[in-house]
């Protein structure tokens, strides 16, 4: 009985403290037409302190979405276009000699911002990709032997072109695993596209208003940690992740030859974090199985290795995760 009262109190507190989520949605909707899943994923990344890998064709409002979110939070935004000739110093910064002072001074690179849009990350060679991924993981960078912490919140939204395109360097598995979510975005509907045309041909393009400060986001992150997760939900998360490693234990023998490696422990951590954040965004103080199912695909799709057999049968990681979600028992 005591636990029920606590959950009720927690639910009321989280409903109050998550009120700003609706305000962010209102501001984002002024500028972004449709793309609800993209906006929701950005909020999950921001509040769960995770990074997002986006796959989608050019012109689908990726830059506009993250720039608008940065505006609503009064945060610094940097867009970095990854090209084959980019160097790590172009990203991180470098030491520059000042003749006036007769000493080296640090010139900080575009990575020193709260929101980073790493555009076409797979167009750059491994050295640059690893420089960005180190910053994502350690939240700090080193220039000339001196370590500089990055400002919090620090969110990287990396876009990648579909691997089939020419001139792309696929991201190594260990680096892809560092992204909390991999979100695939699609074209808008006809009605949405009509609205997009009208907005772009209007006298003034709509803009978002600043309604929060970075400190508010850091405070909200602490509240997200308080969202209640039952043991049954934890077991459900573990079952979903373990089914990618040992499908035969979950009556999914047919998937065994399709998978070369399953999801890592980072998948379990990120499923739990993202589920708590999703519950928070939905203004709820506890996690339900539907929260796990809503974010499961984006958390797992880039963490499973496909065998040649799977590729021969045109089976994707989406098919595998869907099969697992349909088979693993829901609490």
Tell me what you see in this structure.
This protein has 331 residues and is α/β, with parallel strands linked by helices. The radius of gyration is 21 Å and the shape is globular. It is built from 14 helices and 11 strands. It has a 5-stranded parallel β-sheet with strand order 2-5-8-1-9. It folds into 2 domains: 22-217, P-loop containing nucleotide triphosphate hydrolases (Rossmann fold, 3-Layer(aba) Sandwich), CATH 3.40.50.300; 227-327, Magnesium chelatase subunit I, C-Terminal domain (Helicase, Ruva Protein, domain 3, Orthogonal Bundle). Strand 3 and strand 4 (103-108) form a beta hairpin. Helix content is 48%, strand content 15%.
| Mean pLDDT level | 87
| Radius of gyration, in angstroms, nearest whole number | 21 Å
Largest sheet: 5 strands, parallel
User: How many β-strand runs?
Assistant: 11
Count of folded domains = 2
Write down the oligomeric state: single chain
CATH topology of the largest domain, anyone? Rossmann fold
Query: In the CATH hierarchy, what is the architecture of the largest domain at level 2?
Result: 3-Layer(aba) Sandwich
- Going by CATH, the homologous superfamily of the largest domain would be P-loop containing nucleotide triphosphate hydrolases
């Amino acid at each position: 009985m005591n636990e029920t009262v606590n959950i009720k109190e927690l639910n009321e507190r989280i409903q109050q403290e998550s009120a700003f989520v609706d305000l962010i949605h209102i501001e984002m909707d002024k500028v972004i037409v449709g793309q609800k899943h993209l906006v929701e994923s950005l909020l999950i990344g921001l509040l769960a302190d995770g990074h997002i890998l986006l796959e989608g064709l050019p012109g689908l409002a990726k830059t506009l979405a993250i720039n608008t979110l940065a505006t609503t939070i009064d945060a610094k935004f940097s867009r970095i276009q990854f090209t084959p000739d980019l160097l790590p110093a172009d990203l991180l910064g470098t030491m520059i000699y000042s003749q006036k002072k007769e000493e080296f001074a640090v010139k900080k690179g575009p990575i020193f911002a709260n929101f980073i849009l790493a555009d076409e990350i797979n167009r750059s060679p491994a050295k640059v990709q690893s420089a960005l991924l180190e910053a994502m993981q350690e939240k700090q960078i080193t220039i000339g032997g001196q370590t500089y912490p990055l400002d919090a919140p620090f969110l990287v939204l990396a876009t990648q072109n579909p691997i089939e395109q020419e001139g792309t360097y696929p991201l190594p598995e260990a680096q892809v695993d560092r992204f909390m979510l991999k979100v695939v975005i699609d074209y808008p509907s006809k009605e949405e596209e009509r609205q997009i045309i009208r907005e772009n041909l209007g006298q003034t393009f709509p803009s978002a208003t600043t309604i929060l400060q970075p400190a508010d986001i850091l405070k909200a992150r602490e509240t997200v940690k308080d969202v209640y997760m039952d043991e049954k939900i934890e077991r459900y998360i573990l079952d979903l992740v373990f089914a990618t490693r040992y499908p035969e234990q979950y009556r999914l023998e047919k998937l065994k030859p399709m998978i070369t490696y399953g999801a890592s422990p980072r998948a379990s951590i990120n499923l739990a974090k993202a589920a708590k954040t999703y519950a928070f965004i939905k203004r709820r103080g506890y996690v339900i199985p539907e929260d796990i199912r809503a974010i499961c695909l984006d958390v797992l799709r880039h963490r499973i290795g496909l065998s040649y057999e799977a590729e021969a049968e045109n089976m994707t990681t989406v098919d595998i995760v869907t099969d697992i979600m349909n088979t693993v028992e829901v609490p």
